[in-house]
Design brief:
By secondary structure, the protein is an alpha+beta fold. It has two domains: 61 residues, OB fold (Dihydrolipoamide Acetyltransferase, E2P) (Beta Barrel); 58 residues. 38% of the residues lie in helices and 23% in strands. Strands 1-2-3-5-4 form a five-stranded mixed barrel.
Amino acid sequence: MTLEGFVEKRNGNMAEICLADENCGESCAACAGCTRKNSRRTILAENGAGADVGDRVLLSAPGETVATAAFLVFLLPVALAVGGYALVKSFAAVGFALGAAALGLALGVLFCVLYGKKLGRRSETVYRVTGILPQEEEGPPEKKD
């Protein structure tokens, strides 16, 4: 998983990165209807690329973290729904089995939400600055006669 952001602070080999998709410059044409206006999300990352404050950087997260999150979000609720259906279907009518499937799905989603909040408070994900991106130019290029 890769993200883009801007270096806000630097402390030794660590950098505090403000994610680009969460912190627009508030000067774009779409700002009037933007739902993320004035919202900020910062993360701590290892700064192996040597980025300085103000640099636009590319971040990466370990693949196992992304795989675990994908399992929790997509497969766990489905597995609980199928398991609930199969368990109840063996001794009850189809209507009850469908109810058990819905209950399993709801429990899976609830577990994912609660687990996500727990990880948000105490994330062990180590992001790494993998590259420094070129700064975007301000405004359109000037025309030459």
